[in-house]
Amino acid sequence: MTHLAPMIHQLHDLLPVRPPETVSMRTRDGVRLDADLYRPDAAGTWPVLLLRVACGRRIALTSHYAHPRWYAAQGYVVVVQDVRGCGTSDGRFRPFEAEREDGADAVAWAASLPGSSGVVAMYGCGYAGMAQWLALAERPGALRAVAPAFAGWDVFSDWAYEGGAFRLADAMDWALRSAAEAARRVEDGTGHRILSDAARSLPVDDEIPSRPQALRDYARYSHYDDWLTNPVPGPAWTALSPKAMRADMPADVAVLQIGGWYDPRLAGTLDAHDLLAADRLAARGRASVRLVIGPWGADGPAAAPGEGPTLDTLQLSWFDRVLKGQGSDRGGPVRLHDVETGRWHDLPGLPTAEAVLHLTSDGLANRQGGRLGPEMPDFEALDVVVHDPRGPVPTVGGHAVPSAAGRHDRAAVDRRPDVATYTSLPLDEPLMLAGRVALDLWVEADAPSFDVSAVLSVLRPDGQVLPLTQGHARVEPGDPTRPLTIAMRAACATLAPGSALRLSLAGSCFPAYPVNPGTGAEPGETRRVDALPITLLIHSGPDRPSRLRLPAS
């Protein structure tokens, strides 16, 4: 089923809103958390919307959402709280460590505030989304709904690493901004200025690109070193991750997940939906689990304003239905925005990658291009791509550098000699892709460690090459590469006749991920001078069948 716009909220008269009040609570271990309270200036009681933020409650995530006054005018008590160690709340900020207990305490406290009906829902994106998952795992009695957006599910694989590679630009950007806030709280003006300036222009050209001087000098303000020096899953990551707490999450709380095609944490959002939907089905839970993926990135809309529903209209109509019993339940469990047509598609679930396109070449995929086709090639082929660390292949669009996320033309990058491209024949009729994408690549290198960046794009008749999805893998010594399976996130696009699919392969995607030095050394120990050229050998053919797996219909 296809709709032009999903879950549009029906407008009604707005209520007057009282002036905001600053209110405080104490956590179970005695830490004071401060919040701003917005509520209707009218008789009655109202459901509570709780937003717990690490970026300052006065900002209230207005980069993504309407101001809390707007929600209060719709008939809600809205509480915007600084999490522990942020804003004016007491304590020390350590990402995710206290959000399970603090979040549950905040829900119980919010339910008792003036004007509250005793029913609480949570909303927010990024860190505020993860705070919802963690609070949910503590099972607070008043919590009826959560709406995490751009949050992911696992701290290791959604926030710190992807395919074994450190999420350099994303992780460094957040670390610098949170460290600058920590410096501000202790009135360290010099540290705040240095860290803030570095956040505006990431210092990835430092001597040690993955560990720049600003973060070395002010490591006391940041979690960055802890993440950078812990490159494998383990107990430290598990203790922070909602994924590990899935069994603790009740089946009677409604869940609306909002994700974006250009959100770094999309893969975790999809995993969470699949797992929670399965749990509800097994437990016969009646609370709904819904997933909406739109043309958005972690830093806000990646499409022009006015092209479709906002985060506010999406979640307000859902809150009205779940918390107030108002409105109808429109659409399916999964709703996807089509990046080519702009339409919305309702699906019962997220399709898997079942259609196959094989890679084939005459050995010049990095010069004149290879082919993607449904038939297995009759002959073996080998493409040789040389990665030069002095000029790594840059990140263009996609999800991995939030400040530059979106669909940016990568035609010029595909013409580089260190990028191998494989392109299908132009389509004779429309082709819809909706669901997960994966790549099975037979690849080897002349170095103990190497990276593979894979980008799937649509090649339009006018020559534009616009990314649909991408994946990245860091291969460590001894990792299997026969084949190397790269998860390429998910996509939703209906390709028009005359368009073609293109797969682009390279040995780097910088600054989204660190340049692999080829030695097996960790990013935090690698200087620019240490990186070596790496030769990639990409195989295709009957004996080593490199192939792209697609959710095509």
From TrEMBL:
Record carries keyword Cell cycle: no
Residue ranges of domain Xaa-Pro dipeptidyl-peptidase C-terminal in the record: 316-549
InterPro entries: AB_hydrolase_fold, CocE/Ser_esterase, Galactose-bd-like_sf, Xaa-Pro-like_dom, Xaa-Pro_dipept_C
Keywords, in A-Z order: Hydrolase, Plasmid
Presence of the UniProt keyword Hydrolase in the record: yes
SMART domains xref list: PepX_C
Single GO term (MF): dipeptidyl-peptidase activity
Protein's name according to its UniProt entry: X-Pro dipeptidyl-peptidase
Organism: Azospirillum ramasamyi
